[in-house]
Every structure is written in C-alpha cells, then in structure tokens.
Amino acid sequence: MSTDTMARVFGALADPTRIDMVTRLAGGDATVNQLAEPYRMSLQAVYKHLRVLEDAGLVSRPAGPQPRVVRLETEVFDRMDEWIERYRRQAEERYSRLDSVLASLETDNEETEDGKEQS
Amino acid sequence: MSTDTMARVFGALADPTRIDMVTRLAGGDATVNQLAEPYRMSLQAVYKHLRVLEDAGLVSRPAGPQPRVVRLETEVFDRMDEWIERYRRQAEERYSRLDSVLASLETDNEETEDGKEQS
DNA sequence: TGCACTTTCAACCCCTTGGTTGACAACACT
DNA sequence: AGTGTTGTCAACCAAGGGGTTGAAAGTGCA
After folding, report:
1. Do residues B92 and B86 make contact, with C-beta atoms less than 8 angstroms apart?
2. How many CB pairs (< 8 A) connect A and B?
3. pTM of this structure
4. pLDDT tens digits, one per residue of B8-27
5. Which residues in chain B are closer than 8 Å to A15, comparing Cβ atoms?
6. Where are the beta strands (DSSP E) in chain B?
7. Taking the domain B3-73, which CATH number applies?
8. How far apart are CA A17 and CA B3, in angstroms?
9. How far is Cα B119 from Cα B113, in angstroms, rounded to an integer?
10. What is the pLDDT of residues A10-49, one digit of tens each?
C-alpha cells in the first residue's frame, strides 16, 4: 500500500466525527439519516464526511433502493493492521538486537574491562 | 482511548512525509538532521512535523547530549492495533450473525415457503 | 570566551478542510 | 403527474495545516 494511500486512509480517520461514524457503522449498516441523527450539522456536511471515508475506501454505499445504506468496508482495516504490525515486528527485532548488543558489551567488559572503545 | 486522542494520532499519520519518517524511525533512532536529509524542506518544517508526531505520542525525543535523538514510541501503535481489532471482531460477529439469519431464513423457507412474513 | 550547531518561536502565504446555505437532480410512492 | 424524501453540486467563509524566512535562544566544545 503506497505512502499516499496510507496517508489518505489515516486522514479520513483524523476527525472525531468520522471516527464516531466508523465506530457506529461497525455495529451495522445505516442510512445517511440514521448516521446524521446524533450530529448537529447539516446533512450536506455529513455527506461530505461520507465522501472522505468513501474516497479512502473505508466505507461503501452499495446501489439499491432509495434510502441507500452506508456500509463499513473491512479490507482497509486489514491493510492498516498489516501496516501497524510491521512496526511492532521491527520494534521487537530492534529490542532483541539491542539486548544482544548489551549482552556482548557485558561480555566485553568481563574480558577487557572497557566496552566503549570497541569498534 | 478517547475519540479525540485517536483523531490526533490518525491526524499525525495523515501526511506522506510523516509516514515516511515513522517508517524510517522503525529501523532505529535518528537525529533530526539524519531524518531531514532526504526531504527538500527546511529544518524548521521537519521540526514542525516532529512536533505533530510528538504531540500524538508517536515519537519521543529523550533528553541527552546536543544532537538529540528521535525515537519511535511503540505503545501508541499497540493502542491503534487494539482499536482496529475491535472493528475486525465486530465485523466478524456481524457476518456470522448474518450467516445465522440467512440460515434461519433458509430453514423457514423449507418449513413455510415464505420467510419474509416472519416477525 | 567565542564559535558552530541545534532547537524553538513568530510571522507570513497559500491551499485544504469542515462547516454553512441555496439550488437542483433523482427516486419512490399515492 | 405530483409531491416529499434522498442525494449531489457549487459557492462561500473561517480555521487549520504545510511550507517558507528570519531571528533568537540553548548547548557543546576548542
């Protein structure tokens, strides 16, 4: 997944209203009116938010009878999960590498009484 | 984790430059100059990006000798992971619930030849 | 102390964004 | 066919964000 795509996804989630929408959509599909109900903003504003989420691929609005439904798309969450997992793995590796470095310094100290001068 | 906090975290990642910084920091700590090197922007701009990442808790700059180091903080990634995991779980539950609904409709059809009139 | 480098602060510019209102197209339903 | 709801488009406004430059603190070291 490209950097720009990731940025767009994160950007879509960079707003409390949209996070709330996503949270509620996780419980099931909703019409735009149902979605908009709790917010004190115009319907057009809600459509704008929806547009952002849709462009990021977080949400879809499948064709159908008139009060069209808004549906959470889960694939993007999988992509985000993979992305985050990469950092956790790298971080773990770094820590274990750090541990082994510290361990070898420990050994060097025992051998030479000075670990700092080692190249 | 509050909605606003999540929004701030996602907002910090809603920029290709900052995503790139995070990606590179996953490989290890770096000084600001090292971080800034690949980008064609002023050092001040890089500090601004760093500030955003720091405010979101994604990065820290532990006190130390002058060319201070920038370090990726992993806890926030854990929080993000938990957050995303919630949606995946809810989505799974909904799907399995949907499956059971479909299955029961199937059964009703076999029994009554019409599942739509069931209350 | 003085010099170089790192870090921060402030002002400014331009473009994006979250929100508004108003108008209008597209559906569904009697 | 006509009417109310749903969905979209456009113009506008205020605020925020990414970038710049310039200047000023802090910090490390010969």
Report:
1. no
2. 90
3. 0.85
4. 999 999 999 999 999 999 99
5. 7, 11
6. 30-31, 59-60, 69-72
7. 1.10.10.10
8. 9
9. 15
10. 999 999 999 999 999 999 999 999 999 999 999 999 999 9
